[in-house]
């Protein structure tokens, strides 16, 4: 399942009629209680009819209330924390290979649960509407910025990865309405990135940040794609959050390609291999 059931309910809630919304609010607020309620008890608790409960369940693809409760119970089982198996000086190369792959798989699984598709969609639309795209990052995130530049150029966007503090400040000073700043920051607390976002918005441009939610950078951005940062990763292994930033770039590229009718959008990152001369 791409999203948890509770996540889907929260996303659908604004679209619901008043009666169904009361059911959604009850399920969202007290899922542990709901899985033990009969349909009649839940209907009375929410002040709705039994058919309303059935309509609510069918909205999410379930045949009936019992089927819905089983799935809800599976969704609220406590989830194990993000698993990171630290690589130590005593590890063999075999262990390094295994741990690196397992840590990456764990990070991707968490991204599957944590990412909000509506944020990806809003980000894709903002990029598609922009007349020019400035891509900002610092430190290890610069690799992601360069990757994003390559992929968006492959889609025909006018864009550039702006690296280095002096160049970034200069570019932000020339920002204008209709342009978009795409900012990558794992922590969302890097002063340089926060100041760039503020400067860009003061000039009338839009800011889309791929960063941790509820952070200083998120607070000064027009659009945010929240990527949870994962701690306990040491210096010499790929950071899990950086891996997920790359995945978000691919999601944005594919979403835009689908929106604009490009053929085989999921293969766009690999197209260069067909355009280069081979021996």
TrEMBL record:
Example GO biological process: carbohydrate derivative metabolic process
Pfam families: HTH_6, SIS
Keyword list, A-Z: DNA-binding, Transcription, Transcription regulation
Listed SUPFAM superfamilies: Homeodomain-like, SIS domain
GO molecular function: carbohydrate derivative binding; DNA binding; DNA-binding transcription factor activity
The organism's place on the tree of life at top rank: Bacteria
Transmembrane segments: none
UniProt keyword Transcription present: yes
Record domain SIS: where: 123-262
Domain HTH rpiR-type: start-end pairs: 3-79
Protein name as annotated: SIS domain-containing protein
Organism, as annotated: Jiella pacifica
